[in-house]
């Protein structure tokens, strides 16, 4: 009977040691969702997306890689995709001008809203700010920072 108690105590001790030593982690098979922003552009408007990588760790930060996607809001159709790769402390600018509609505003056509998707790895490594600009005059209409 005494041997049985010793075995139970040893098994409990091994279980406690393994519980503390072996890390448990959940597996998430779904990719992280992209950052999404809805922007409505007039036919003469364009948009500049400024990306900046400020790493959370200061020693040997990984390269921030990803893409900026411009999609039609109603259909989800990809208009254009621009890949980027940033090292720590660097930034880049992505410019997008929607396809020309040649007089669509005069004809009463409603401008197409676009969805901007920012996908990056590691997640949230790139911060974005958006500048809406008037293409013919190259003047800034609005700046939005996130």
Explain this structure.
This protein is mainly beta and 146 residues long. It has one helix and eight strands; from the N terminus they run αββββββββ. The chain has one helix spanning 2-21, and strands at residues 35-40, 45-53, 64-72, 78-86, 91-96, 113-121, 126-134, 139-145. The strands form two sheets. Strands 1-6-3-4 form a four-stranded antiparallel beta sheet, with no helix packed on it. It has a four-stranded antiparallel beta sheet with strand order 5-2-7-8, with no helix packed on it. The mean pLDDT is 75.
What summary fits the major beta sheet?
4 strands, antiparallel
Number of strands: 8
Number of discrete helical segments: 1
Q: Rg from C-alpha positions?
A: 25 Å
How large a portion of the residues is in β-strands, by DSSP E?
35-45%
Instruction: Summarize the amount of helix as a percent range.
Output: 10-25%
**What letter string, H or E per element, gives the SSE order?**
HEEEEEEEE
Can you list the strand order of the major beta sheet? 1-6-3-4
User: Overall mean pLDDT score?
Assistant: 75
Cα separation of the termini:
68 Å
Give the low-pLDDT segments.
Answer: none
* Large-scale geometry: elongated
Structural class designation? mainly beta
């Amino acid at each position: 009977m005494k041997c049985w108690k010793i075995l139970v105590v040893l098994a409990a001790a091994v279980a406690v040691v393994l519980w503390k030593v072996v890390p448990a982690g959940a597996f998430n098979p779904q990719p992280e969702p992209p950052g999404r922003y809805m922007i409505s552009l007039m036919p003469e408007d364009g948009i500049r997306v400024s990306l900046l990588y400020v790493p959370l760790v200061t020693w040997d930060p990984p390269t921030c890689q990803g893409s900026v996607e411009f999609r039609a809001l109603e259909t989800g159709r990809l208009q254009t995709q621009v890949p980027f790769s940033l090292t720590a402390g660097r930034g880049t600018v992505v410019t997008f001008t929607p396809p020309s509609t040649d007089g669509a505003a005069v004809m009463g056509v409603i401008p197409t809203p676009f969805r901007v998707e920012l996908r990056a790895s590691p997640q949230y490594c790139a911060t974005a700010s958006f500048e809406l600009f008037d293409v013919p005059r190259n003047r800034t209409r609005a700046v939005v920072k996130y």
